Amino acid sequence: MRRYSVFAIAREALRHHQGWGRAWRAPEPKSRYDVIIVGAGGHGLATAYYLGKNHGIRNVAILEKGWLGGGNTGRNTTIIRSNYLQDPSAALYEKARSLYESLSQELNYNIMFSPRGVMMLAQTEHEVRGYRRTARANALQGVETEFIGPQRVKELCPIMNVSGPRYPVLGALWQPRGGTARHDAVAWGYARACSDMGMDIVQKCEVTGIRTERGRVAGVETTQGAIDCDKLAIAVAGHSGRLADMAGFRLPIESVALQALVSEPIKPCMDVVVMANTVHGYMSQSDKGEMVIGGGTDGFNNYTQRGSFHHIEETVRALIETFPMISRLRMLRQWGGIVDVTGDRSPIITTTPVQNLFMNAGWGTGGFKAIPGSGWAMAELMAKGEPGPLAAAFGLDRFAEGRFIDESVAAGVAH
Amino acid sequence: MLMLECPCCGVKGEETEFTPGGEAHLKRHGPGAPDDDFEGYLFRRKNPAGVHFERWRHANGCGKWFHVARCTVTLEVFGTYPAQTTSPPADILRRIRKKRPDWEGWR
After folding, report:
1. Do A301 and B1 touch (CB under 8 A)?
2. For the whole model, what pTM was predicted?
3. Could you read off the pLDDT of A332-347 as tens digits, one per residue?
4. Cα nearest neighbour of B1 on chain A
5. Which CATH superfamily is domain B3-99 in?
6. Contacts (Cβ under 8 Å, ≥6 apart) of B94
7. Residue of A253, A255, A301 to mutate, testing the B interface (most B Cβ within 10 Å of its Cβ)
8. What phi and psi, each to the nearest 5 degrees, are found at residue A234?
9. How far apart are CA A188 and CA A69, in angstroms?
10. Domain-by-domain residue ranges, chain B?
């Protein structure tokens, strides 16, 4: 792999940028691998990367039915934060956030991590109490957050109207080290590093069946032929249920559409991420100047990668009171992704009823922020066959045992 | 946009008039049931990519619950029918089979 650096840019500038080469190879799949990972999104690629880096497992293929990072990795609103209430979630998301801080250097690929700060607005008394509690929980967990008053909110985000009649801003949970990153670059950076370790990333290769022998995974059937493997990981977000169905079990997951939209680009006016959970809306400004807006999920099962129009309307209508300036913005694009939602709104990183088949799913509306931590925990699970400290609480067995990591109540809504 | 016809009052409306209520025809397992059955009843939904039977409520209308047979991939609605049944009616199943010949069946 050719390292990217200021010297490389100078060298290539002198020869008309003819020598850059491909960032990752496009190989034909081999007939057998030690590990196959289904899904070349952030979670799948990060799992492969840490399998190679932390555990020395490099005979790995990552199969992708579409194109690399073209699912939810390329469709989210790129928010990174770790201000969760429950200890297991805070540990996992904080691991991810801390890995994001040095990911550009580690991958030699600029993921444009911008720790600009994330604030979650408290717009009801209930939320004020909730976020004060979360701030204290975060202090015990070692996650740096603070409950701030409306004046400080206004200082940090001057375009906000903090004294709206219906949803006044009463304060906010402020995580100064949260922020955003370029979502595509996260997938591309991991892909380049995986390819460099000798792993095969096979795009346009859809898994159509999972072969098992005596309760143990043996390989997969794909649109590019059968491939054998010793261990199999599934990291396919909204389509987790379909893959589990191929392997003969059912997951406590429902697939629904989540959508986002961006405005026309405008001059810089907001240098923090703002989430308003009471009204189901969140907003940040991209480096291009677009206001990136996300809302709630549709309420019904859906595999169409597009959401209902009235949800956009509700999101924007609610945000207009808090951000009066967006009422005159034109919206440029809207898109949807299929998210896999669990009963307690926490992910599943787990062994399954099929031996050597591992599942990384259930990230629901908040998977992007977790990519490095998720890959780290999943790689450990696959290499050792049992979960390490990060993944231990996120097993499939928690639903039978009633041992939920209940972030649906903790966060109120989408996260 | 999803268009549904309420089988109770006969009004046809778009989805903002209705509230989704999840998978239909669940077999309820209560106290005394094996753990696995109870967990399945509470959490493990079918979540199919394709034909799906679900409950909806005509929230901004007559207020009644009813059932919808719908495709989760195309959002095509095969039909709606009243809630007072434990399985989809034969004419709806026939209609689905005609449009989806390789459908594996509702259970």
Report:
1. no
2. 0.95
3. 999 999 999 998 999 9
4. A308
5. Folate-binding superfamily (3.30.2270.10)
6. none
7. A301
8. -120, 120
9. 8
10. 3-99
